[in-house]
Amino acid sequence: MTASRSVIVAGAGIGGLTAALALARSGFRVTVLEQAERLSETGAGIQLSPNATRCLIELGVGERLRPHVTAPMALRILVGQSGREIVRMPLAGATERYGAPYWIIHRGDLQGALVAAVAQERNVSLKLGMCVEDFATHSHGVTVSANGPGGVWHERGYALIAADGLWSESRARIGFKEPPRFAGRTAWRALIPASEVPAQWREPMIHLWLGSDTHLVHYPVKAGAVINVVVITTDDWNAPGWSAPASRIDLLPRFPAGGWAPQARVLIREPETWLKWALYDCMPLSNFSYGAAALIGDAAHPMLPFLAQGAAMAIEDAVVAARCLARMPDDAGRAMQTYSALRRRRTRKVQRLAAKNGKRYHLSAVRAMLRNTAMRAMGGAGLLRHYDWLYDWRPPTA
Prior knowledge:
8-stranded mixed β-sheet; 13 helices; globular
């Protein structure tokens, strides 16, 4: 196959693997370059709302995912101090409402299913230990340079999809040199065997506890065998990375008696091992593309996790970018420009609402009471309607 039908993908995370699969299904030969020397099961749980599961199912990954997912019945929002339920947003009817299910899954299981699907595509080559260092766009596409075990690697292709994450080198090459900004929050994560928690926490449910400067999220993953726990705190700790060791002793003071319900405090005491990462985002970019190269996922629009849409937006990006390239086979630059135009407004809205949610979750005193009253008045069905625009998204057909 000629270079005109070859696409290079930088990064083998969720966005990069989805892009590789979508491109291969559109007839492209794809080379995926991943900096890590091996793909390991890292990260925390992921919520896959219908806008994401629709894409994955259409790409044929749904059956690989089903053994690992849980379909939550609802999102329960609770008062951290009392444990009282504020509102319950129904999710059990997601397939009937949106045409695709709402799933929760461990990031490693999602990545593993994508790797297995990509491995079945004869036109996809996955190269590990390869760090993309530079690229140049030209009238015939793009030339990419990478460092790897065999030295410097050069390849020409029709286009480059840069899915190289929050600390993307490609973002700077496109012209956006401002580094990610620390959001003043730290995320702590742990996994608990389901057999070690009370029965109420084993239910197929997403639990969101709201507290002053801290909130707690937990739900079952690995088909219900494990409970994924994430705590977000207001913090000054800003070391980059995804898996710094963390101490339970440092976390427990964030859940003082009288400030948090006993059942939440018991849950936080359960895990012996915690990991933590500092939260970063970026100012919205004016453009995701440069010639035949384009950014997707966190490379294009890193966002805070308070709308549970980081993975979903990367999946959406990947599908749209692949469709644009397939429909403009003679002009990769125009295809990437079209992709950027299609995605900027939606991803910017999601970034903005995620940041707003982060502020709402950590309110205290009177402002927290007003928030809770407003959510109760809206009700679970009303809250779900508030997200119809997000969950009912479909890839453009023209």
